[in-house]
Amino acid sequence: MTEICLVRHGQTDWNLNHIIQGREDIPLNETGKQQAYDSARFLSGEKWDTIITSPLSRAKETAMAIAEFTNIDQIIEDVRFVEREFGEASGKPVSEFHDHIYHDNVVGMETNELLIKRAFHALQDIAEIHKDKRIVIVAHSHTIKAILHAIDPIKVPFQTVLKNACANYIEYKDGNWKIKAFNVSEHINS
């Protein structure tokens, strides 16, 4: 069985101010750094084999905190776990584009279908390469939601809001994916 914990990055100023951030490289703010360490302490109670991260700095900073607490020396960057391209909505207030995003109707935005295909294909590759291992993947809200939605669209509709630095546990066994827990955030103190 392959076990994966999908961790959303900690908070950025754009998260705090409800600004849509797609592939813009916005770093963690002070709260986000604390959230990254909260997640790292939480995950340090378990044995992990590998950490994979999106190349964006907010995810990499979160992954580095987790690596420090789990004694994993190498972090693997995988561009396929980058956040969704939000097209003309990027850098704009969430309130202006919320409904358009959830109806898959924004000019230049990566569609739900393409996002799910990209993220789930990456997940399948990781499960094959790291068979029977325990892996942490640090990524972004829409990327993680796409994966969870692909596994169980009833349990995790695309409109689900994932908290910053939340943990989402999935497993792969005998050709089947299963969500064990999602949006776990009780460990976040900030």
UniProtKB/TrEMBL annotation:
- Positions annotated as active site in the UniProt record: H9, E83
GO CC terms, sorted: cytoplasm
Q: Which domain of life is it from?
A: Bacteria
Q: Which SMART domains match?
A: PGAM
User: Which Gene3D superfamilies does the protein's record reference?
Assistant: Phosphoglycerate mutase-like
- Which Pfam families does its entry note? His_Phos_1 (PF00300)
> Which InterPro entries does its entry note?
His_Pase_superF_clade-1 (IPR013078), His_PPase_superfam (IPR029033), PG/BPGM_mutase_AS (IPR001345), PGM_Phosphatase (IPR050275)
Coiled-coil region(s) at which residues? none
Query: Which GO molecular-function terms appear in the entry?
Result: phosphatase activity
Tell me the residue numbers annotated for binding substrate. Answer: R8, H9, G10, Q11, T12, D13, W14, N15, R58
Protein name (record)? Phosphoglycerate mutase
Q: Which organism is it from?
A: Gottfriedia solisilvae
